[in-house]
Amino acid sequence: MATQKKTTILSKHEQAEIESWLKRYPEDRSQSALLAALRAVMHEDHYLSTDKMDAVAEYLDLPKIAVYEVASFYSMFELDEKAAAKNTIAVCTNISCMLNGSGKIVEHIEEKLGIKMGETTPDGQFFFKIEEECLAACCGAPMMQLNHVYHEKLTPEKVDDLLDALTDKKGGK
Ligand code: FES
């Protein structure tokens, strides 16, 4: 098990989270804790820096490429530092959502926040992911994830309520 690593840039919380997952697998299967490790880093940093991915690789005794492969495969992981905003918006633009008006939702969010997809608001409140593939909620199209929580059957008004509630709650301006 990877307990008591001497030096790592992973936070205590990230290490504790990884350790809790390592306990669930045989000692020679540390790769099984990789998704959980990356999720723990995402939770704290909101994106995966190369330094943090390398630290995860070292912690789990994995080749760096094994971490990069997983991190770049799943759209729930962000590799772009711009994603280090307080809130992440991911509108599904795949076929069911597209046919049910995701384009209008994207336009509305861009106009409301004054940014394009792939950008972060100047105050660091919102990161608008460049695209999101089908999130298996087609029956609720159009839909989006807001900080990984699903919101379905979106309308511009519903989007306004959701985004406004976040900025109010978090003291955003
Ligand atoms: S197409 Fe958007 S959730 Fe499936």
Describe the structure.
The chain is built from 7 helices and 4 strands; from the N terminus they run ααααβααβββα. Helix 1 runs antiparallel to helix 2 and helix 3 packs across helix 4 (64-73). It has helices at 12-22, 34-45, 50-59, 64-73, 95-99, 102-113, 156-169, and strands at residues 87-91, 126-128, 144-146, 149-151. Helix content is 43%, strand content 8%. It is of the alpha+beta class and 173 residues long. A 4-stranded mixed sheet has the order 2-1-3-4, with helices on one face. It binds FE2/S2 (inorganic) cluster. FE2/S2 (inorganic) cluster binds at residues 92, 94-97, 134-135, 137-138, 141, 143.
Features:
single chain, 173 residues, alpha+beta, 4-stranded mixed beta sheet, 8% strand, elongated, binds FE2/S2 (inorganic) cluster
Average pLDDT works out at 91
Percent helix: 40-55%
Q: Which small molecules are bound? A: FE2/S2 (inorganic) cluster
Cα(first) to Cα(last) distance is 45 Å
Q: What is the N-to-C order of secondary-structure elements (H for helix, E for strand)?
A: HHHHEHHEEEH
Major β-sheet strand ordering: 2-1-3-4
Q: What is the radius of gyration?
A: 18 Å
Estimated structural class: alpha+beta
Number of strands: 4
Low-confidence stretches: none
Beta-strand content estimate: 5-15%
- Note the total helix count: 7
Tell me the major beta sheet: 4 strands, mixed
The best one-word shape is: elongated
